[in-house]
Design a protein that fits this description.
The chain has 5 helices and 7 strands, in the order ααβαββαβαβββ. With about 200 residues, it is of the alpha/beta class. Strands 1-2-3-4-5-6-7 form a 7-stranded mixed β-sheet, with helices on both faces. Helix 1 packs across helix 2 and helix 4 packs parallel to helix 5.
Length: about 200
């Protein structure tokens, strides 16, 4: 079953639980927070992978090498993208099927920077450029400032085609403490409406 308004909250919570439970290995080249951020994208992508069978769909993200043979990339334009694929014939003497993106269903960007909302604005602007049916931006909780960030991003959401979600997730540096549960909002009728996610913890 595809990811949609009725189950996106469950997908987010399951990914959140998976990401927090994923190991963080000591690595001098990569900070624990970097690894946790990567675990979050991997976990979210893993949830989408469960909903979109490979026979018809491809899920692109940096940690996925399954699409290398067909497309030569792991990540395609966004932190996470879910696409339908089709084929066209190659121009060889004996034509071979060449896969291409036929439709984009989800485009997701994730930015945990807490010091400057400019990074949020830049990355969320990428969603305006996409044609996906559904889009989601993920940012770190900032307590009382969450509402300010939603208001700041409202004009961007209004420019997006398709359904738009904004998800707040605790910053990776507090994951070992008592982090807040993700909070999900949907852009509806020129305003943000909270989507229930707590029922599937």
């Amino acid at each position: 079953m595809p990811v949609h308004r009725g189950n996106i909250g469950e997908v987010v919570i399951k990914a959140w639980n998976d990401a927090r439970g994923a190991p963080v290995e000591p690595d001098d080249r990569k900070t624990p927070n970097w690894q946790r951020s990567r675990n979050w994208v991997d976990a979210l992508a893993g949830q989408f992978n469960r909903h979109y069978p490979r026979e018809r769909y491809r899920v692109f993200w940096a940690g996925n090498e399954d699409n290398q043979a067909e497309f030569g990339v792991n990540e395609l334009l966004f932190d996470l993208a879910v696409c339908s694929v089709s084929t066209t014939a190659s121009l060889q003497r004996q034509p071979q099927p060449l896969p291409f993106i036929a439709r984009c269903h989800w485009q997701i960007e994730s930015e945990f920077n807490r010091t400057n909302t400019r990074e949020i604005i830049i990355d969320m602007s990428k969603l305006v450029m996409g044609s996906a049916e559904s889009k989601m931006f993920v940012a770190s909780h900032r307590g009382d400032r969450d509402r300010d960030i939603l208001e700041q991003c409202a004009p961007i959401a209004a420019c997006c085609a398709g359904t738009v979600y904004f998800c707040f997730v605790s910053h990776p540096d507090v994951w070992e403490d008592d982090p807040e549960v993700p909070v999900l909002h949907e852009w509806i009728a020129d305003g943000w409406v909270e989507v229930a996610v707590s029922a599937v913890r």
